[in-house]
Amino acid sequence: MMKKRFSVAAVLLAAATALAACSSGEQGGANNASGNNASNCTNTIPKKDLPVVTMWGWYPNMQLVVDNFNKRNGEVQVCWTNVGQGSDEYDKFQTAISAGTGAPDVIMIEMDRIPTFQIQEALVDIKQYGYDSVKADYGEGAWKDVSIGDAVYGVPVDGGPMAMIYRKDLFKKYDITPPKTWAEYEEAAQKMKDAGGPAFGDFAANVSALTMALQIQKGATPFTYDPAQPSTIGIKLNDQASKDVLDYWGRLAQKGLVGTEDQFTPEYISGVISGKYATYISAAWAPGYLSGAGVGKGEDTGKFAVAPLPQWDPDNPVQVNWGGSAFSVTSQAKNPELAAKVAYGLYADEESLTDGWTNQIIFPLNLKALNDPEFVDLKVDFFDGQQANKEVYVPAANAYEGMTYAPFGQYYFDAMTKQVSALIEGSGTGAQAADRIQQDVAAYAKEQGFTVR
């Protein structure tokens, strides 16, 4: 069975740590629908006579979201615990999967991690538990990102439609118009360099998900997977589109048109603040991340704007996504139907959604927020009052068609990081890097028991 074959998935998530106890806090209801421990919750449960569903999540405003749900719900209450963000949570979940106990009923999970846990039979297909009643609340691309085949393994909450953030002051100084194509992007980068300007952007080794998204925009389909054939996977990481994208960015780096510094570091942020980079190719969550890191404040105020992501083929535009999270029901939930009610209902009320986007915690995928005129017409302070949602992010989100993630996505990202690092250092071409990534990931898949096609 694939669950046994893929037991080494813990390697993908780093070494598993001992399952941490729930955070201490107010005592929850005694009528626990799942059988999991709901005696210790971070939140106070107001309706103690109702069944309780346990949940792990790390959104900064999760306390508000859970309280909103519990106040308005007359069927079930949520016992929430934050056991850590990202890999910290995944390590604990992996330990619970291996032990067969200790997982929550509902877990917040990044969309690209869903296949890793689904293939271990750790998540529940919730399509039978109310999907039809909420299907219209999200776009097709959002649903595809949380689905495997015809099964649905999560409720989308936030996403990362991509765009190009740029420095208005630098574009004005060097007489640059926001490029609409990647060919124009390279031309503008060369123009800025020839005039003695800074790097036009950054080609970093530690943002493999970004590189993958740009390859998909060019036409790549990295993975094809059907749960009806759980031991077979299609892997195409060295097709022409993938090679073209690596060759493109490798060329820009070798010509000195873009930097090659790792992103999400203090050094990189310092460079963004000081005008070391003219553009930042990123997702809709970037303004919140950047402003939280100190960008766009003080002397930086009012210097940033955003434009649509440059296209490879302007006659056939493709919108892509970087990041996003969902609520999934785990296979250890004793009452998956009740747990699904929680997954569907959390972060779905107007107050929670509004708090999320006004405080730049999430870019909402729920169409009630995505189509809300207040959200669409918002004048974003970080972009000096630009209506960034209307002009850029909402159209990109609406046009996004979704993608298929791999059940060993972290291994793939690590392989990409290794080869992009080599490319940046001058070891071969982008096409050769793509071939090495294909060889590495395909060999790994075969080791895990997959038939690769």
From TrEMBL:
SUPFAM superfamilies: Periplasmic binding protein-like II. The keyword Transmembrane helix does not apply. InterPro entries: Bact_solute-bd_prot1, SBP. Pfam families: SBP_bac_1. Keywords: Signal. Residues 1-20 form the signal peptide. PANTHER family: ARABINOSE-BINDING PROTEIN-RELATED, BLR3389 PROTEIN. This is Extracellular solute-binding protein.
